[in-house]
Amino acid sequence: MASLYSSVNLTATIRFLGGLGSTTFIVSPLIHLIIGIAMSKASASPIVPRAIPDYTTSEAGNPFVEGWYADPDTEIYEGLYWVFPTSSYAYDEQTYFDAFSSPDLINWTKHPNILTIANVSWATRAVWAPAPIFRNGKYYIYFGANDIQEDEPAEGKIGGIGVAVADKPEGPYVDAIGKPLIGDYHNGAQPIDQDVFIDDVDGQAYIYYGGHSHANVAKLNEDMISIGTFDDGTQYKEITPENYVEGSQMIKRNGIYYFMWSEGGWQGPDYAVSYAMSDSPLGPFNRLAKILQQDSAVATSSGHNGVFHVPDTDIWYIVYHRRPLSETDGNHRVIAYDRMYFNDDGTIASIQMLVKDDFANGQMFDWKTYGGDWTVANQRLTVASTTDARALLDTNFTDVVFDATISITDGSGDAGLVFRAANLSTGADEFSGYYACISATGSVTLGKADTGAWTSLGENTMEVSVSTEYQVRVTAVGSEISVFVGDLTTPQVTATDESFVGGANGVGVRGAGANFGNVSVAKAS
Ligand SMILES: *[C@@H]1O[C@H](CO)[C@@H](O)[C@H](O)[C@H]1NC(C)=O
Ligand SMILES: *[C@@H]1O[C@H](CO)[C@@H](O)[C@H](O)[C@H]1NC(C)=O
Ligand SMILES: *[C@@H]1O[C@H](CO)[C@@H](O)[C@H](O)[C@H]1NC(C)=O
Ligand SMILES: *[C@@H]1O[C@H](CO)[C@@H](O)[C@H](O)[C@H]1NC(C)=O
Ligand SMILES: *[C@@H]1O[C@H](CO)[C@@H](O)[C@H](O)[C@H]1NC(C)=O
């Protein structure tokens, strides 16, 4: 069976099909069948997926799963992409982990309670940052528990980094050793926020970890449940880079070790990810740059990352948590991913948090609706015919290129793009912002609502057929606004207006029902 795997033809075919998005569905059962056969023959390490997800971001929207989660770490098991996050609640409520799996990074299956404190005798609260890895036919999760402070182990309080083991990726995981694996401070590092990494050169496993602004690396023995010893007799080597706070992560590409970590306070907006490169797994790790951080148009507090490397490709994703722009509760963290690109010299390019939604996952996790009956079906966001309704993303773009497809399904009114919008929750009477729409009566209009009062800024006649999909683009740069329909070079309407500088992006209808697809909101360059 092994030769089937390395077949260039098979890989190429599936790559082609996978690239078409919806046809991935057709490919997946085949892939799973092949994987199933190979697994039972080889029963070696888990086999990687064959479909190649090659996206610019989570094109079905970020967050990619529903719920408050943080500190995601990743693995690829049995042809599926897995994400293991912290449950983001008050410490006393952090007593379990959920996990998520996906064949394509689009549709995710939730696996609840893969590990709970019921199966870790010494853990009571604050179970954090599950780090998954596979070895010797077993699935391991390394986790922090109890949030011990520096003087507490001496007082008899138990806690630190534990290790749990399971026979399947989805668990159930149970404590492997009945006590913490790392239960004390070493070199000032709080025993939390671990990542486990197996070096492909020699099969040596390492654990990178640490909170309270100190990072350590230690060897894990072959059994994966005991700490090894370096040649100099020590067990914990401090590797703290400049600005390190927590959230250790190790990846390797082209023989280079990339140590990544989080900076800033996790509850504040400026939490961020930085990295270092080294030719040794033990460093030194000299801070090179901050690569992921808040964006005033998209989200705050972007940090504590994992990484997906799509096997046999140079496609990489950074998986991280962030706070929706308008949210302030420290625990309101959601998990997102974006593409991570490497420069020719091996450095990591600054990561752009992109805003897209093609609705391929059948969900609208990141949308808030104001009036109307909204659903997702057939890769479109649909609103039933109504007098006035909007669905908005929690964004705040100023200069923007905003695209979506729009199809009026019903009614004689209009459907369009809302941008630089504010005061949505107060309803139609108070809504402020711009609206660029196509109307079933045969026009394209750009207008503004100023605390509810509507003014047209420009209009053009254009035949608009019901149940026909039009690509609509708005570009707004400073006070210059253009609206394109179908033809993206010659605008249908242009106007100059400086009423609104920034605000939320979304879609809306007035006296119509409509479908919206392929939403993309980007900074105008
Ligand atoms: C985990 O703990 C629960 C509650 O004590 C117990 O019922 C269950 O059997 C345990 N699971 C495993 C896999 O040991
Ligand atoms: C993803 O989920 C959507 C909505 O349930 C479904 O229409 C689509 O077929 C799924 N895609 C795959 C690849 O399973
Ligand atoms: C939002 O509504 C309030 C109260 O009506 C108003 O004072 C404010 O100017 C509005 N904001 C915008 C951006 O229109
Ligand atoms: C959105 O951005 C504009 C322009 O940068 C800013 O004035 C406004 O306060 C922001 N709105 C919110 C809700 O953050
Ligand atoms: C979205 O874009 C994809 C890729 O270009 C295309 O296949 C699909 O038909 C589009 N969907 C909609 C609703 O416009």
Description of the molecule:
This is Carbohydrate-binding module family 66 protein. It comes from Hypoxylon rubiginosum. The structure is a single chain. The protein is mostly beta strands. The chain has two domains: 13-357, Tachylectin-2, Chain A, CATH 2.115.10; 367-523, Sandwich (Jelly Rolls), CATH 2.60.120.560. The chain has helices spanning 2-6, 8-18, 24-42, and strands at residues 69-77, 80-87, 96-102, 109-116, 128-135, 138-145, 160-166, 174-175, 195-198, 205-209, 216-220, 237-238, 246-253, 256-263, 272-278, 286-292, 299-310, 315-324, 334-340, 355-357, 367-370, 374-377, 380-386, 389-393, 400-410, 414-422, 432-439, 443-450, 453-461, 470-477, 480-485, 493-496, 504-510, 512-523. Strands 20, 22, 23, 25, 30, 31, 32 and 34 form an eight-stranded antiparallel sheet that branches. It has a seven-stranded antiparallel sheet with strand order 21-24-33-26-27-28-29, with no helix packed on it. Strands 1-2-3-4 form a four-stranded antiparallel sheet, with no helix packed on it. A hairpin with a 2-residue loop joins strand 28 and strand 29. The longest helix has 19 residues, at 24-42. It is elongated, with a radius of gyration of 25 Å. One 2-acetamido-2-deoxy-beta-D-glucopyranose (NAG) binds at residues 24-25, 104, 107, 361-362.
